[in-house]
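Review this fold:
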Amino acid sequence: DDATTTTTTAQYDLLRKRHNQSQRRRSRWYNRLLLRNNNRHNSNNDDITTTGNAFYNITSTNYDLEAYELDLPVVVSAKRKLLSSRLFRRRPWLQRKANDNDEYPKLKEANFNDLNATRTVLEGILLNDNDAEREDVTNIILFEGVMIYLDEGVPHALLELCSDVLRKSRTANSNTSSSTTSLGYLCFADRLENIPGGDEDAAHVEMESTGWELVDFLSKPGLARHMGVARVV
């Protein structure tokens, strides 16, 4: 009836409003992190590795980003079909960064429940030789709405894996003759393990136990209730 329709519409509008607010807030966090690193290095060299749809919430265009998107094989296949037909119309700056022989962002297949395979993919990105040719590289890993779908225990192990690979990247650069400085950050809008509700103290413990120093943290409504920025230690 009309009353039910009105109530349902009001609930939908409220959920849409909350979603849009959350998306704008995530975008501000992502771009603030990029701007902070850009100002510190006086350089635009950032490597960004994202999961889910996190990359498409980055609206800044003034960065030289080497970008990778990790997702399930079936999702990667679908995204490749959508890149030219829809995404480039909505994000024209992505089209300008792409060329005839490459895709942007670079799509990589990964099943995060398979930690060994995920490590192989991530090391292939972060331990390559390209960074040795640049100075002051910042590696940023973004997680958005991914951990809520993973098997129990995997989100915690995935945080450990990411920090370990970033430390390896930092060590690899320090062992070369290059003057490259490699920094590592994690930015997330997800549901982390071992953090009941939005307990910030528990968030600090979880991040420290997996090799991260929590820089910013915020709890929000929804499944992906934890938002934050962490620095690898």
